[in-house]
Design a protein that fits this description.
The chain is an alpha/beta fold and about 230 residues long. It is about 35% helix and about 25% strand. It contains seven helices and eleven strands. The strands form two sheets. Strands 1, 2, 3, 4, 6, 7, 8, 9 and 10 form a nine-stranded mixed sheet that branches. A two-stranded antiparallel sheet has the order 5-11. β7 and β8 form a beta hairpin. α3 crosses α5. The chain is globular, with a radius of gyration of 16 Å. The two termini are about 30 Å apart.
């Protein structure tokens, strides 16, 4: 399986001196190490998109492949994902934001759908605020709208996604049309609107997931990580 981690951004909102994916968690691992450990059960080919403090991130994960977004200060996740999709081997691609802390059991749910090579966006049905990417879906469970500005959203897109091999070229085309400041969700939404690309809203509400944008998010992640480590011990 091709897996891409988007870790090029500066992550200024969290206020840390290092790249956000390297933020330490309560169990001593960084966010990125937690991701890589979780993903290892899939035996994936991992590519990390780097930019801000690229060498520091690369030292943290020496056994993976890297793509460098040299314009990380001017571009958003649409262009980081575009770079990766142009370079990773053919086939479907699972990708995640580099600031997502998640329950590894979520990957069992994900694997059942990637086996079908079907495009999806992982979502939960929790109430979410202005900063979260929200979604709406059709009666048959396909994404209709996907952005921070969605009104009346059903819940949150949590930053873990998959593009099927048959849909990959379409997504690349729409990521190319995105502006530098667009998030990758705009490319997905555009492909749905104009090309009819089917993207499943994959409900993973039963599993813990948080994108660490602010200090409160990090506190939530550490409570969960601490609870998991304690119960395992």
């Amino acid at each position: 399986m091709n897996v891409v981690i988007l870790a090029a951004g500066m992550g200024t909102r969290l206020g840390m001196p290092h790249p956000k994916p390297l933020t330490p968690l309560a169990d001593g691992r960084s966010i990125m190490r937690q991701q890589l450990d979780n993903l290892s059960r899939l035996d994936p080919a991992v590519t990390i998109v780097v930019g801000f403090h690229a060498e520091e991130v690369m030292r943290h994960a020496p056994d993976t492949r890297f793509v460098y977004n040299e314009r990380y200060e001017q571009t958003n996740t649409s262009k980081s994902l575009l770079k990766a999709l142009r370079l990773v081997p053919p086939g479907g691609v699972l990708w995640l934001n580099g600031d997502v802390v998640f329950d590894p059991r979520l990957l069992e749910r994900v694997a059942s759908v990637t086996a079908e090579d079907r495009s999806f966006v992982c979502v939960n049905t929790e109430a979410c605020g202005e900063e979260e990417v929200k979604y709406t879906a059709s009666s048959d469970g396909l994404i209709e709208k996907l952005s921070k500005s969605v009104v009346g959203g059903f819940g949150e897109a949590v930053g873990i996604n998959y593009i099927a091999s048959a849909d990959r070229a379409t997504l690349v085309e729409h990521l190319e049309a995105c502006t530098d400041t667009d998030y990758f969700e705009r490319g997905i939404e555009s492909a749905i609107e104009t090309a009819g690309m089917p993207v499943l809203a994959l409900d993973i509400s039963e599993y813990f997931v948080v994108e660490v944008d602010f200090a409160g998010d990090l506190e939530r992640a550490n409570v969960e990580v601490g609870r998991t480590v304690t119960s395992a011990a």
